[in-house]
Design goal:
alpha/beta, Alpha-Beta Plaits, 6-stranded mixed beta sheet, 11 helices, about 30% strand, elongated, ATP hydrolysis activity, translocase, transport, membrane
Length: about 300
């Protein structure tokens, strides 16, 4: 895949405090890259450096094959779109007027009409921003980041505070960006969001990237075991329990099996129940998630 951003050994200090301790990041064309970490881990510093909002310390940053020295030059910023965690607009401006204003900041840009259609705000083009819902305002924010037709879009927690319908709408926009060949750098506190959208994920903690991989591989390698809970029509004897290859725990009024292979274990469970004429009911499966991975690797939740 074509590499569009390469970061090597990036550091940043605030006085004696090391916010970044030599991190490496690669971004590829047409991917959604997730950047996760606890508060204070170095996420914001990293993103602001790559957005050109903060000067880097030591290390190397390359955009589109061009090594960056100091601040990101204007011609590179022309290829970057940014959605901040919180974006405020002048309430007395209409949606179309805001996009006309933002388009004037760039040498080349799409028309406001094109972007309005892209973010599904056709019916709100002549509406004032203060009359929009939270989800609609966030789509306006994304629209301003797309007006220059960027190759890379940085999205900093784009769905915070949105209701499920609005969040789903924003997810659809992000997926559409990928289909159009755009590269998306996504930071989020929502694990289901990262697991659904991201092709690759890096987790940063204490200024260091501790792991980078696909969400599937992260869950497989660090998420822990899956659980199968079930009930039987009667309590089997210990001899019968011991005949099941998988180890069974009795939890309250049901049984629990921990396994690395749900399919194989379920097959064994069915054969075992038939062998001893046991009726199994209330089967539920609990598989590890990206949240489990995060807790395993950092030892604390994202919202600490």
């Amino acid at each position: 895949m074509e590499k569009v951003v390469e970061v090597k050994g990036l550091t940043k200090k605030y006085g004696r405090f090391e916010a970044l301790k030599g991190i490496d990041i690669n971004l590829y064309k047409g991917e959604i890259f997730g950047f996760l970490g606890p508060n204070g881990a170095g996420k914001t510093t990293t993103v602001e450096i790559l957005e050109g909002l903060r000067k880097p310390g030591e290390g190397e940053i390359v955009f589109f094959g061009e090594k960056i020295h100091g601040s990101i030059p204007a011609h590179v910023k022309e290829k970057i779109g940014v959605v901040l965690q919180e974006t405020r607009f002048l309430d007395h401006l209409k949606v179309k007027e805001i996009l006309e204003l933002f388009s004037s900041f760039f040498k080349n840009s799409k028309t406001p009409e094109e972007i309005i259609k892209m973010v599904h705000l056709d019916e709100k083009a002549e509406s004032y921003v203060d009359n929009l819902s939270g989800g609609q305002r966030q789509r306006v924010a994304i629209a301003t980041a797309l007006i220059n037709d960027p190759e890379i879009i940085f999205l900093d927690e784009p769905t915070v505070g949105l209701d499920p319908q609005s969040r789903e709408s924003v997810w659809g926009l992000i997926e559409a960006l990928k289909k159009n060949g755009k590269t998306v750098f996504l930071t989020t506190h929502y694990m289901e969001e990262a697991q659904r959208l991201c092709d690759r994920i890096s987790i940063i903690d204490n200024g260091k990237i501790i792991v980078s991989d696909t969400s599937q591989n992260l869950v497989k390698n660090y998420g822990g075991k899956s659980e199968i809970d079930f009930k039987c029509d009667r309590i089997p004897s210990q001899t019968i329990i011991d005949d099941l290859k998988s180890f069974i725990n009795l939890v309250d009024d049901h049984f629990r099996i921990e396994t690395d292979d749900i399919t194989k274990t379920l097959e064994e469970l069915v054969e075992w129940s038939k062998r001893y004429n046991l009726s199994i009911t209330n089967i539920s499966l609990v598989e590890p998630t990206l949240e489990d991975v995060f807790l395993t690797l950092t030892g604390r939740g994202l919202r600490d």
